[in-house]
Amino acid sequence: MQIPDDVGRIDRRPVYRGRVVDLSVDTVRFPDGSVGELEFMAHAGASCVLPVVGSVEEADPDILLIRQYRYAAGGVIWEVPAGMPDRIGEPWEEVARRELEEETGWRAGTLVPLTRIFTTPGFTDEVIRLWLASDLEPGTRQLDHDEFMEVVRLPFSRALKMVRDGEITDCKSVATLLYAASFLIGGGRATE
């Protein structure tokens, strides 16, 4: 499909400015030339990290996941450590390193970028950058006042089974685990 150059936002009407998101109603020109309104949620983005306790070369290394209380999800869910920038322009690798240490108490000796994902492109511009951390070293855990979580060490294969069985449903965590399984851990290597 060829997209004309004049497609996109014509106008923005702010509705709410919050700590995590900004909401607006945008007037948009669509690819067919028609114009309509869309609700839009602006988000700063985030980094998430899969911490590997062993070596990525192992067939089934241990990893760290967190079980975190999430109000919007209605309870406790499984996740990889993640978070948003503390300041505008904070480098994504810095965000990943900081969040890993704050949420798990471990620092990454090696941090490898994996990919990035749009969480829900139907209404938000949120992009999460996925990372894999290895060569972990003890650090200092420091949770925010609204974070309630426990760190759980488990075999990578167990986490993949939890994805398959619907125990891990968090989008960024599913994407990170499956990416690592497909391309990095236990000999998983994509072929060209």
Automatic annotation (TrEMBL):
In the UniProt record, does the keyword Hydrolase occur? yes
Cofactor(s) this protein cannot do without: Mg(2+)
Which is an annotated Pfam family here? NUDIX
Coiled coil region boundaries? none
Ordered alphabetically, the record's keywords are: Hydrolase
Domain Nudix hydrolase, residue spans: 41-176
Which InterPro entries did the record assign?
Answer: NUDIX_hydrolase-like_dom_sf, NUDIX_hydrolase_dom
Q: What's the family?
A: Belongs to the Nudix hydrolase family. NudK subfamily.
The protein's name:
GDP-mannose pyrophosphatase
Taxonomic lineage of the native organism:
Bacteria, Pseudomonadati, Gemmatimonadota, Longimicrobiia, Gaopeijiales
